[in-house]
Amino acid sequence: MADDWIVLDEVAGMLQAEILRGLLEAQEIPTVLSQEGAGRAIGLTIGTLGSVQILVPSKDQDRARELIDAYYAGGEEMPAE
Distance between CA atoms of 40 and 75, rounded to whole angstroms? Predict the structure, then answer.
């Protein structure tokens, strides 16, 4: 049975989204980025078309939320696995 995916966060621009995907995948949390087609095609990084959704499997959402919250708090201490 396939996992249900949830939107964990929405950020402005693909650069920030890629940073967060790297953080999550380094902790073995599968991550998918989703951006409106027009925003991706012309490289927008601001406004509605520039936003990128970060999706993770619902079974990993609690751990992923801890990691993202720690990152936004400054990342001094990442939660232990």
Answer: 28
CATH topology of domain 5-72: Alpha-Beta Plaits (3.30.70)
Distances (CA, A) of 30 to 10, 15, 25, 33, 48: 16, 18, 6, 10, 25
Q: What does the alpha-carbon distance between residue 63 and residue 45 come to, in Å, rounded to a whole number? A: 27
3-state secondary structure at position 8: strand
Average pLDDT over residues 29-34: 95
Instruction: Fill in the DSSP letter of residue 79.
Output: P
Gyration radius from the chain CA atoms: 13
- Beta bridge partners of residue 7, listed in sequence order: 55
- Residue 19 predicted with pLDDT over 80: yes
Indicate the pTM of the whole model.
0.76
Residue of higher predicted confidence among 57 and 51? 57
